[in-house]
Amino acid sequence: xxxxxxxxxxSIIIGKxxxxxxxxxxxxxxxxxxxxxxxxxxxxxxxxxxxxVVKDVDSAKxxxxxxxxxxxxxxxxxxxxxxxxxxxxxxxxxxxxxxPFIIIxxxxxxxxxxxxxxxxxxxxxxxxxxxxxxxxxxxNLTVHKTSAGAASWLPVARVPNLASAIETLKxxxxxxxxxxxxxxxxxxxxxxxAVALVIGSEGFGMGRLVKEKCDGIxxxxxxxxxxxxxxxxxxxxxxxETVRQRLNK
Length: 249
Prior knowledge:
By secondary structure, the chain is α/β, with parallel strands linked by helices.
């Protein structure tokens, strides 16, 4: 029987009919998991049209998601909020009458890190966040909890290609700065204008193409023996340095 699990992961919907109806409605479906050998062509097509990520999984993974119930070959993870487009993100600053202030998360796969970044960005008054469709944490229950609910308030755009999204920002007058230890000190960089900050993944930093698209590279001065920071901590420092400069312009 189609159902929504009511346990520690209430954001999982199982069953062909339940998932199909969720996709047809305004439910923010984040990811659809499908097992091989099932006639799910129409469902998969609709999921892609709705912007959901479709992942092929084996029966063991699907059984785990379904909590042992009959999932009929499909399960879906519901987002804690709807995604928006990059253009809609840019429109936010226009409506506020302020210069764009956007955070780009380049393959931040740890949901706790993404949730922490969202919490800081919302508290600092950023316009929103951009994440890639692949190799990234999504707006799941863990992100919502870690963000202390900020994920329900801060707009998030999910895009198939970060490099293309950066090009769109630049065409709209936004300067894009990536975080990397080899960059110029963030305290010596003018961040008062229309700005997007790129935070790279926990283990590998920014991707090559994303880094090449940046207008500048920022670093955070390090004075101890450890020369790297957690992604969400680095994001917090850069976000609030941007806020500090904007308040003191």
